[in-house]
Amino acid sequence: MLQNNKRWLYIAVPIFFFWFFGQIDKMGISVIQTDPGFLNALGLTGEDKSAKIGMITFVFTVSYALSNLFWGVIIDKLGARQTAILGLGVWTVTMIMAGLSNTYEMFLISRIILGLGEGMMIPVSGKFISSWFNRRELGKAQASWITGNYLGPALGAMILVFLIATLHWQAAFFILAGFNLFINIPMFLYLTRNTPEEHPGVSEQELAYIRLTDEEDEVTDRKFTQDFRYWIVWFGMLIASFLFFGISIWLPTYLVEARGFAQEGMKNITSISWLFALLFVLACGYLSDKTRRPSLMATILFGMTALFLAYAIAAPNAIVAGLCMGLAMGAQGGVFHLSNLFIVKFSTPETAGRAAGLMGFTNIMGGFSSYIMGWLRDASGGSFSSSIIMLIVASLLGLLAYLFTLKKEAAETRLFNKAV
Length: 420
Description:
Blueprint (H helix, E strand, L loop, with lengths): L5 H22 L1 H4 L3 H6 L7 H30 L1 H21 L3 H15 L2 H12 L5 H29 L2 H22 L13 H7 L17 H31 L4 H29 L2 H21 L3 H28 L6 H9 L3 H16 L5 H19 L2 H14 L1
Helix pairs in contact: 1-7, 1-8, 1-9, 4-5, 4-6, 4-7, 4-15, 4-16, 5-6, 5-7, 5-9, 7-8, 7-15, 8-9, 8-12, 8-14, 11-12, 11-14, 11-16, 11-17, 12-14, 13-14, 13-17, 14-15, 16-17
Main location: membrane
InterPro entries: MFS, MFS_dom, MFS_Na/Anion_cotransporter, MFS_trans_sf
Organism: Siminovitchia fordii
């Protein structure tokens, strides 16, 4: 079974852990910012506390998004393997810097540099998937690493709560640096290569399957920038980033301060919410290959997000409200997976890095979401209602955008079914 499926070991496994630990680095701040010791150490107190907390994610996502643009170009020149190792080195150093921070300003600088280092994650993953997998298995290939994107924070919430309780918030950053230094970097060094042709462990049979094409796959002459659906997906990712970062960054604080959960309850709901995202990813990975209707699925997911958020406001029960927020976040995890599938679908192996880099720029909206939600909360006397209403409006914008893709997708699906 493994003989002609080495790509799942050499590529899927490293990028799974790439995202597993990378997302704990990235999203773990949502848990750490609920720790009183962290807040007091960095002076995150006073009437503008929420806005200052939101600024932490804002500066990270802005640098993360902007760096996607140059990483997308670099990766098409340097290669996915070398780019991954370089970026991992940068963000390992920033984890150590964050743990040593004793001022708010120093911590902000560490998050800016972290964003610059982690900005290569989407281009690296898109490049590897485009180069190493047959286009007919893109849904499953994408799901194999996006699983790490959500399983990491799901388990990471438990890990970070334990580390903070038993050690210190600073120790959490040092241990995260160790994960990258001793697990991620060695895996990319010893398992991966830029292309399957370069890897001595890939058989001729497997290489032939990877390069097998059919008429639908012949897109080498098409530029992704000329397909209007790419730009609709790009706009959809702007909305999805706004929603996902807004919910995920503020969810632990929402549970503790707005719904009265203790640390244990907050940890459980937060972990379950990330598992919801994982389930949506797995379902989308299967259904996108099965139905060939990813745009329709994204439209439905945006509608579900709006409904879940609306019920979170109305629900009198704290557990139900928390789970609804988690389901809304999970639905946007599904949109994220479908968007990365579109990156590969609308590009070629030669342009995948640039297409992914441009798509990754949309993460800039996550920072605005985090900061705006913090500002609205300060202005509302600590209430999250106005912030959640804003997220509902954003969900409806995403739904409307994807409606314009459905007609062409339906026609393509009918043609494919007739051919089969």
